[in-house]
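Complex record, two chains
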Amino acid sequence: MHSEDYYSKLGFKCGLEIHQRLATEEKLFCSCKANLAGDRAIQSIERRQRAVAGELGVIDESTMFESRKERKFIYHLYRDTTCLVDMDEEPPHDLNAQALEISLLISKSLNCSIPDEIEPMRKGVVDGSDTSAFQRTMLCGYEGSIEVDGRQIEIPSIFLEEESSAILGNSASEVVYGVDRLGIPLIEIDTDPVIATPQEAKRVAMKIGLLLRLTGKVQRGIGSIRQDVNVSIKGGARVEVKGLQEIDSVDEIIDNEVERQAKLIEISKELRSRGAAVGSPKELTGIFKHTGAKIIGDQVWQGNSVFGVRLHGFRGLLGKEINPRMRLGSEISDYAKMAEVKGIIHSDENLDSYKLSGKEIGEVKSALEMQEGDSFILIAERRERCEKAMALAVMRARMAIDGVPSETRGADSRNKTTRFLRPIPGGSRMYPETDARPAETAAPQKKMGSRVIDIEAIRKSLLKEIKNKQLAEQMLWSKDMPLYEEVVEKTNADPMVVASVILEKFRELARAGVAVDSISGDALEYIFKKYVKKNITRLGIEEILRLAPKERWEVDRIIKDKKLERLPGAELRKMVNQLKGKNRNEIMREIMSRHRLVIDGDELNALLK
Amino acid sequence: MYSEALEKIFHSEDIHLGDTVKLTVKGKNYEGILMQRPESGDSSIVIIKLKNGYNIGVKFSKDSTIKKIRGGAPMVSEGKGLKFDGSLGRVELLYTGGTIGSKVDYLTGGVHMLTKPEELLDSIPEIAGIANIRLRQLMSIASEDISYLEWQNIAKSAADSFNDGARGILITHGTDTMHYTSAALSFMLKNLSGPVVMVGAQRSPDRGSSDAFMNMVCGAHIAANSDAAEVGVCMHASSSDDFCNFIRGTHVRKLHTSRRDAFQAVNNKPIARVGTGGRIEYLSNYKRASGEREKVNAVVGFDPKVAMIKVHPNSDPDILEYYHGKGYKGAIIEGTGLGHAPVSTEHKQFNWLGGIEKAVDDGMIIGMTSQCVNGRVNYKVYRNLRLIKNAGAIFCEDMMPEVAYVKLGWLLGNYRKDEAAKMLPQNLVGEISKRSEVDWFGENNAQ
């Protein structure tokens, strides 16, 4: 972990975009169910999309980029979670009032101003994840902030928008999407790029996540919250890292991205000092007519082409590691792969491993008019793909001379690194959603009153209830807080006992291999009701939980089978009387050793006083 | 639509839509582009496009101010124009407007008809590899506003284009009344030497998901390459972007308000199905171009004094008298089932028999069709049907009400009344089929 000073010297700039699905009954602009039921698709349709001129009359760069891939999109459709609106076959219905209220609550809790009228917009999306080729989105809060460990982090804007479709499959010529997810209300919270360190980024994300969870109105589970991070360093470029689903690795991934940008800046300095340049691609198929290099030979045998390009002054730099298991060569390869080729071969690699002969390498070098200090790249594929891939590789190689390209990158959670997805979208992709009416906010605000989510107030009230600072803090951050609240409210059990069972016992049992996740809230509530009525003891609770009951009758059966019924006071007194004469500790030990699970220690203690 | 008070302020500040402005409300400043306001909502809320591309609505109150920072650039209509290949089939594109010819003004948020229809072609560059297209803008109107006067204009233009050397005609048209226009052109255009293909869009071409692109591509394939000498509509065959159906102009109907496969064949099979790659698969018999180039004629007479009347429980037959009083010469009744109208003797006020009889005696032509849309009317099955027939109504076989309506107007515009009455139930251009084939309806109809 580096110091704050280290990052400030690098000119580290970092802002977050947090996307969270809201827990509404219906989708944002139609009456489909807004929860993913995991149903089977009932139909599928096939669509193509094309780039259209954006609002400034130009086709946005990232839009062009996806459209260049000319892929076919297959959409799977579902009974309860897809309708004609999701299929782009019917205009949107009215804006979901419940979603609007939740997003206003979140905006106000983050100290945002609320627009008098919310204007639905269309934001161009051409990766196919929206059947309409745009996402409906609207500004619902602005100029807010959140305090994280004493620092004020500005929140310039909060958006309410439609979730995209989920990718189910992906191949060279088509992408398969599930439309059940499309249109679920999603809130996006953006921070200013004022975050000082990767660790702070993680803390900010966690605190915003906490606030969202405390509304009780957001979806939970995998994929329901996603963090995107914008990172740059001095001399680098804004890179948007998408899809950080696990908060634990946020800092590590950012750190690697910083490292990558720093290395790319170094490489660019070196390239410029060498007067590096990128040549024009040439067809070299003839050289490989009888090659022993299988990876190229297979393509030539199928009648495909081999193209090569000279990279003047690149020698040694293509193979330079810029991230764990990532080299400049892999960055160029990632671009080429957008044209559906398997990859590239470059001269900083061990060419023997491809079984390229010295003669072939010599011919390539002379065909490309290479000089000392140059490198080359080869791509073998179907001619048109090959040409496209080469154009992309050349584009990326040229960018290496300039430094760090501005990109949207995907988080690789396994290697804690990022991989190229597409160029960063420009600002020219927004226009009004003319099919949906603007929504005035005066009435919903009046209905909501002054309610906001105040983390400090909730922290204080938890401490008052649980009376143990550590447990209370743990509970605040726990995803099981709603369960805790429900059990305490419905059973009147001692909050500290409930908290300790949910936070400590659950973890302990989980470690011991008990399927604690399958214990139902209802069973837990029933157990605590029995505890409050003195039907079982605190140790008895643990014994019951060990068998992970889902239903009330299971709880009853466990109590019966394991004889966990708490001994009535009269019986306990009888036992104590029978042991008269022995000293207090002996009595205690003797009784507890035989009836530990059914006797309350405090009760016994009191009797022995 | 901003309030009068706001419009006044804009005027005095020389502010126009699209200008960059600074709005100050309750001490807060908002800088951005002034956008158009939709017709709904609070007209004192000013919509500003912020730097991040989002629009925000801010209520303008007494103490608020708005100042112009700089004028906006007007929306540029590119319309570069594609280069076409003279060796391909010459197709005349007659542009009439509709959703296929509209787009959002990104600057102000309003929806407009294209000022330069070339823009539509610019977004479909592959069309230049299909046909040698010449574009003629006839009009730029929404289809709900199209009347017989436009039908006449389109028919004459199509005939001129054929006579000027076009092998096929592509017509862009709003979808709502496209099937009326296709029926009208079917009757008006005589001696066709090639296909007349109507295309539209259910999603405007300013969106990447628009159906306009594929409809245009498939329509161009038909217009440039098919030997059909018929008028038809070419639109999506399903919700997928894979095939279009080319459906006979007198047997096509918009059967859905918003889906892209809204147009389906009724009492017929599509003439052909066509893929984006240009493969045309003929699905039924059709009229072929003769090969000898005769002059194409446009017989465009049309009498608009024809009514369409839907009968229903409690419907009042006096409506016929009203129309007669207004100088109407004919009416097409959308009857129920096989061609019924109420003939009850118990509720005399709802009995249509006298009304029909009187209308016919007064010289009106009364055609009977069915609101079932699919199927054929028949006057022989029930006594009540025979009563209607005896009252003088002409049963229009398997013509849809809309087609019978267009046909009667066209007949009255070009023929004597007695001829018109005789021709109404006779097949002229494929609008009536003698046989009802098994797979024209239901699950078997693999359109």
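Note: Chain A touches chain B through 52 residues (CB under 8 Å).
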